[in-house]
Amino acid sequence: MERIKIDTEFIKLDQFLKWVGIAESGVDAKDMILNNEIKVNGEVETRRGKKLRSGDKVEAFGKEFVVE
Question: Do 33 and 47 touch, CB atoms closer than 8 A?
Fold first, then answer.
C-alpha cells in the first residue's frame, strides 16, 4: 500500500489517477472510472469528480493507495 500525501483539502479522483501514474491522461482516467475499474474505500466509484480526502483508500489494477 502506497501512501500519497496531498497539500490541499481534497483531490478529485481523475486527477489523483493521473498524479500517481495509473492514468496517462484525463480521458484514460475517465474510461477507467466509467468501466468500474477503480474502487474508493472498497466500493466501485463511478464519479470522476469524487473528492478524495485524507484517509481515503483507492484501489486500481492490484495497487492500493492511501491519501494522506
Answer: yes
Would you list the domain boundaries of the chain? 2-67
CB 55 within 8 A of CB 67: yes
CA angle 25, 4, 65 (to 5 degrees): 80
pLDDT (mean) for 35-57: 97
Task: Please name which of 1, 7, 9, 22 lies closest in space to residue 48, comparing C-alpha atoms.
Answer: 22
- Alpha-carbon gap, residue 7 to 60, rounded angstroms: 22
Span 10-44, pLDDT tens digits: 999 999 999 999 999 999 999 999 999 999 999 99
What CATH number labels 2-67? Answer: 3.10.290.10
Give pTM, 2 decimals: 0.92
